[in-house]
Amino acid sequence: VRPIDFDHLEALYDLRIVLETEAVARLCALPAHVTPLPLRELREFWIDAPPLADGSDVAPHDEAFHMTLVGTAGNPEMARVHREVTEKIRIVRRMDFTQASRVSATYAEHGQILLAIFERNLKEARNRLHDHIAQSQKEVRKITLHALQQARRGASD
Q1: 99: closest CA among 148, 146, 49?
Q2: φ, ψ dihedrals at 92, nearest 5°
Q3: What is the separation, in whole angstroms, between the first and last Cα of the chain?
Q4: Torsion angle in degrees (nearest 10) through CA of 64, 93, 14, 74
């Protein structure tokens, strides 16, 4: 088992924020009458449908949410790099869905991000997306450190 390199994870999260906030800027720049189908499908899942109860079921939808934002922005190279970053941080990101409060926060935050995009409110969309990723990053770090501490205790018993 390799130790977790938190500096590397921080760098990947920084890159993720850059890619996703740029994607949101491009989506907000679309004409008001244009709402791509992938964004309408995100709205259906994150806003209109009842939330899933199990965090492990929500995790892949969360990943798809972020990948869809970048993919819909129209730059295939941005989407490729984002996909690579997503694959590298997947295991720690999934830890964010081990707590019910984080699952409900994800639904609320995704809904707010989408509504800001639909309203073409760039500042609001960027801020909400940035804060959402930063909070998730903070929670994942805390949960990961706690899990490592528990594992060490279990190994020494």
Answers
A1: 146
A2: -80, -35
A3: 19
A4: -10
What is the CB-side half-sphere exposure of residue 138 using CA atoms within 13 A?
7
Whether 67 contacts 80, CB under 8 Å: no
CA dihedral sign, ordered 117, 114, 22, 27? negative
Q: So what's the pLDDT on residue 2?
A: 63
The model's pTM? 0.89
Q: Are 106 and 62 in contact (CB under 8 A)?
A: yes
Average pLDDT of adjacent 10-residue blocks, the chain of 157 residues: 79 96 98 96 98 92 97 98 95 81 93 98 98 89 72 67
Alpha carbon distance 136, 148 (integer Å): 18
